[in-house]
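Weekly structure sync, notes
Attendees: PL, DS, HV (note-taker this week)

Item 1: TROVE domain-containing protein
DS walked through the input record. Source organism listed as Arthrobotrys musiformis. Sequence as pasted into the shared doc:
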Amino acid sequence: MSSSIRAFSLGALRRQWLSKVNRFIYRVTMNPNPKASPAFTSQTITLPHLPELYKANFLDLLLPPPAEDPVASIKNATPVPENPMISALDNISNEVRTENNAPALRSTKSPLLDAFHRPAAHHDPFRISEIFEKAWKEDPEFTLRIIFYLRSIHDGKSDRKLFYRAWSWLYYKHPRTAIGNLHKLVEPLCERKLRKGDERNLPGMPHGYWKDLLNILCLVATNRLGQEDHYNLGSGKSITNPRGIPHRKQRQNVRYQDLCKKLSDDPKFRALYVAVARLFVDQIASDASLRDQLEKTTDREVRSALQWRISLAGKWGPTPGRSHDRITNISTAIAQLLHASRESQSWIYPSSLSGFDHTGPLSVEQARTLRSFLQRWFLAPLRAQSQCPEPFMSANMWSSINYSRVPSVCMSNNSEKFLKHDSERFSRFMFDVSIGKKTISGATLLPHEILMRLLEYDKDLESVNMQKAETEDGVDRLKKKFFETQIAVASAQWSTLIDRLKQSGSIDNAIAVCDVSGSMGILNDYTNRKTPEPIFPAIAMSMLLATLAKPPFNNGFITFSADPQYLRLSELSGIVKNARKMGEANWSMNTDLRKVFTGLLLPLAKKHNLKKEDMIKRIFVFSDMQFDESRRESYYSGRPQSEPWETTYDIIKKDYEEAGYDVPEIIYWDLGKADTVEVHAEREGVAMMKGFSAGMMKVFLGEQEDKEDAMLVDVDEKEEDGFVVVGEAKAKEEAITPIGIMRKAVMKKSFDGLVVLD
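Item 1 (cont.): predicted structure, written out as tokens:
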């Protein structure tokens, strides 16, 4: 190597080494611990002056109420005249076929039921707007309930992305209503059912969580609320954009200017901003007061009651300088408002803020001091009180984590880290869970998420060399322990989910029909848990139903094929083996739903001469709803317009009536992305559900217990000699309908209090 080349190489290495050293020196001297101190954030942390921030009537000031009652104006509107010919044409245009050529319908003919059943997170904004616009014109109060039902973790669909899409429509069309009801998202409104014998009066559970408020605020601030998802495919522009610190500072400045402009020019956004800040301040102040009471008492029962009343606002409160605050500066607004209410509290602020009276904007130093105070004296203590695992994890204090208090999602995401850094304690905790000594969180997870994790880790466990794992202290033994622990965590979370559902009741005389056809996907694709193939929720929901059903209807399901079969699940086999058994069921390249009834159930009934009362009363169909055609192709290909359009359900009903039996109630549970329905809104004996949440099944739980405890009755009464004589009570059992089940789902007490404001 020549001397010049050697000198060049040494010079390059020297410059590279000095660059790293200089960066390290700068990091240590100028910003000793940026992750621990919000004071060192590079963002602009001030805000324009927001006088409405300190006023309880901010919504009326920024978005004045309408002159007339918005609900009355819609209900008193002149109905649109109808014409029989136009109605007939509408019926024809409502006819559609599934992907497999079975007759179906585009709409339920009820705007409200369409809003309840048809929206999906992948729909474009125009489609979402079209659905909810029609529903709002029919009944705005009911539509508002449906929107919050989409988000409800415990009483609804638990579909966060779909809720954001629906709420975005509400925000842009009816901003007073959208903003004025945000508090219902985080208040403990969902009933917390306890085990028998537990007499504690515990607070309820919220529909969403506090992070929803910050997510919505960030999406509106960046003009992305309700917009379609776009994926970065590596365009030329993105490749040639400058990188590094200068580009990041430029983006921060542009973002800050956009934020200030929206706060100044957009009253909707200003009202949303103030609402989110005030909600956090009210709850953080309340929680801080409860925490002070906790420190003053040693009574065990009092402390337990106080701890249950402390919310998770402190946990999800925006950390200064972190993700949500970088985009919105919301920490500054929260810190300002807490400082403004200091006179009614026992908080002692630094003397440097004694002269600040909130009649003008903050200076940079004032904002920095207030934000540091928020982090040090509010967020950190509340997070410590709620025993959030994240601060302990980041501080490498793994032995301080209370695993019984770890939320379900956090447990799913971090059980690997718990095992790695705190193996002995975590293994002991999982053993205590297995024997019922301790509990693990899991009731808020979606069933298919747990199932997919179980399938993934079971497959990984099969790849381990068991002989080496048993005899050698090496990698295989570590892998075996890790995968077994992960399976134990997921299995315990599944048990927790089942226990929570059983507290709402059981299901009587019902069985699942599980679609495991090719269009549903395959069980090997278990890594994409956010947008899973329909086969995973179908199997998970079928297994849930099989567990919740009363004997002898429990632990069984019917396959969905040209040759349907009834299969039993073994409690001893475990979740994974039962799931694989269901997924491997023969479907004969066919998804003819009619065959379940005419090829299996009806022939059995005729063969054994079963009575009507001995037939299965209710069947849950878990499918993507893309059924195969149930009749000869020539019938439909040449169907005259005078012939009625018969869906799969219509044909099944005729088959049962011809055999002299009542058709069972059918619950169509749609797990796919196609936009078709089976029946109209008022069709008796049918219900329609769509989604992956186990909480949606609560609408069918405990029905028999309700009938026994409080039966709906018609009372015959007459008056004789001034006395009322009560006749015999008559049981009144109404047939289910799609719209009836919808009303039962969204008319729950937890959705009371939602108010239409514009």
